[in-house]
């Protein structure tokens, strides 16, 4: 061997020795020799009769010591199947089951004895019960005898009914994500139209079926010149038919103001009986209620409200250890009623009690948490 070769070996031995001193020795183990260029990231091996407590034997020397902390345990204990050791205080060892598994007896502490682990740590597969039964719906895919973590089933409503919520739910930590609901349609009969002196938008009367969340326009019949309101929405089988009025009445003053919204025309000091104005909301805000308000005997009919959006920031996501699943943005606006999906940050796991596809509700969003 040349003199340069001896010098290289000596340098590597010196660096390895200095590294072991700065980060400390490994109890019942040792650091494997490594090249000069990779002296911070190393691998370790355990002495005879011992085994690394986790599968990963790669470590790095940092300013605060080895990361992760290398531990060698007696070989009679061995690794924990479908789990890993997360801490050790004196004789007590704390373990955590892998994602999709749970401790069989609910205990996450054990002790390594001369005869092995006591109690024996056993990680079993997490299972969900049968998916919830949804009224007026059926499961169309994913149905089976047993359900495990991340299994998915899909629902479909009966004809005429409207699905509200996600059509697919997921087994998440022994329980299902929130299921959907099937909303009933509204049936307006010819007799109801005749009693209310109403006409359909085409000026005729007939029995009609309107799906939930859909709207229908009505006209007033003879001897009526105003409809309040003119567009009616079906809400899960319920629909308030409009009221027709006629004749003259008191005038109205300026229309009411609404928070985060305004009328679409210039405001006047005075409005004639039967006049109407229309409202709109600011960007990202969702209008709830009838857009038009009518002047009726000096009083304006009910005005709508503007529902606040949800604002998702990097700071909020960092505090919950999550990221957006399908997008990357410093700030995201989510309108009321819309859904957004999150994922755990790298190397973190979801909490079993959380749902990671959540809905914005009037500016509030239930953030999931990862650990």
TrEMBL record:
Which UniProt keyword terms apply here?
Disulfide bond, Signal, Sushi
Q: Where is the signal peptide?
A: 1-20
Q: At the top level of its lineage, which domain of life is listed?
A: Eukaryota
Q: Which InterPro entries match?
A: ComplSys_Reg/VirEntry_Med, Sushi/SCR/CCP_sf, Sushi_SCR_CCP_dom
- Ranges of residues in domain Sushi: 21-74, 75-125, 126-184, 250-308
Cysteine-cysteine disulfides: 128-171, 252-295
Q: What is this protein called?
A: RING finger protein 219
Pfam families associated with the record: Sushi
Tagged with keyword Signal? yes
């Amino acid at each position: 061997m040349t003199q340069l070769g001896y010098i290289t070996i000596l340098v590597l031995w010196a660096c390895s020795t200095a590294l072991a001193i700065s980060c400390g020795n490994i109890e019942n183990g040792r650091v494997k020799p490594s090249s000069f260029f990779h002296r911070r990231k190393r691998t370790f091996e355990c002495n005879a009769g011992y085994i690394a407590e986790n599968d990963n034997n790669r470590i790095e020397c940092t300013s605060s010591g080895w990361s992760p902390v290398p531990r060698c345990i007696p070989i009679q204990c061995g690794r924990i199947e479908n789990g890993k050791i997360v801490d050790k205080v004196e004789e007590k060892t704390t373990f955590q089951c892998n994602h999709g598994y749970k401790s069989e007896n609910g205990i996450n502490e054990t002790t390594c004895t001369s005869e092995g682990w006591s109690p024996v740590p056993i990680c079993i597969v997490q299972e969900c019960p049968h998916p919830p039964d949804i009224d007026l719906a059926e499961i169309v895919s994913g149905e089976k005898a047993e359900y495990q973590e991340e299994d998915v089933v899909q629902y479909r409503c009966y004809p005429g009914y409207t699905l509200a919520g996600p059509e697919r739910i997921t087994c998440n930590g022994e329980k299902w994500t929130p299921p959907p609901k099937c909303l009933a349609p509204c049936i307006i009969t010819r007799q109801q139209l005749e009693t209310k002196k109403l006409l359909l938008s085409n000026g005729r009367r007939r029995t009609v079926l309107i799906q939930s969340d859909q709207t229908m326009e009505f006209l007033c019949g003879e001897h009526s010149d105003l409809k309040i309101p003119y567009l009616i929405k079906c809400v899960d089988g319920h629909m308030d038919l409009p009221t027709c009025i006629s004749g003259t009445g008191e005038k109205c003053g300026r229309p009411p103001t609404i928070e985060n919204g305004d009328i679409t025309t210039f405001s006047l000091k005075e409005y004639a009986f039967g006049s109407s104005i229309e409202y709109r909301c600011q960007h990202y805000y969702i209008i709830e209620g009838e857009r038009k308000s009518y002047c009726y005997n000096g009083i304006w009919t009910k005005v709508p409200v503007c529902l606040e959006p949800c604002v998702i920031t990097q700071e909020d996501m960092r505090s919950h250890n999550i990221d957006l699943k399908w997008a990357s943005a410093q700030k995201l606006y989510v309108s009321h009623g819309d859904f957004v999906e999150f994922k755990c940050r790298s190397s973190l796991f979801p909490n079993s009690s959380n749902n990671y596809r959540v809905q914005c509700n009037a500016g509030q969003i239930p953030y999931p948490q990862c650990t």
